[in-house]
Amino acid sequence: xxxxxxxxxxxxxxxxxxxxxxxxxxxxxxxxxxSPAITLDGxxxxxxxxxxxxxxxEQYAGxxxxxxxxxxxxxxxxxxxxxxEDITITLLSQGSATENQLEREYLQQSISQNLGVKVExxxxxxYQMFANERDNKNYDIFVGGWFSDYNDPxxxxxxxxxxx
Length: 164
Known about the structure:
By secondary structure, the protein is of the alpha/beta class. The chain has helices spanning 4-12, 16-24, 45-49, 52-60, 64-78, 98-115, 127-135, 154-157, and strands spanning 39-40, 43-44, 88-94, 118-124, 141-142. It has one domain (4-146): Dipeptide-binding Protein, Domain 3 (Dipeptide-binding Protein, domain 3, Roll), CATH 3.10.105. The strands form two sheets. It has a three-stranded parallel beta sheet with strand order 4-3-5. Helix 1 (4-12) packs antiparallel against helix 5. The relative contact order is 0.17. Residues 1-161 form the Solute-binding protein family domain.
């Protein structure tokens, strides 16, 4: 996950609108780190900052050939010669509720179908087990969430780190 094009290919392989509809039956698709409900000077932060990711996402969404090419570009930049079908991505998640299972299966199917990779699920039962797996880096990607403690975009942006 050290390459931006690999991360983008994985992210763009997920149809956000379909996922929130099919898996959750509610919510709004996310195209940025900050929730549309967060306001700045009385206006949604997303409207002020724009949906910068959405524009690029829409160039790739639903086009498996473009997504595979973006993924391959990332592999090439890293000097990885493995074929996508020989690559396994481990997805770490927690929870046994039906919604959690649907979410995992949706992500697994979307990523594998669009990129041609295998997606292995590492599912744990509770947060402590999840934290242990995460801290021991027993994953390539994981499912998580963040809820705002207060109405400020920095509550979302301050938790983002590079190089950890």
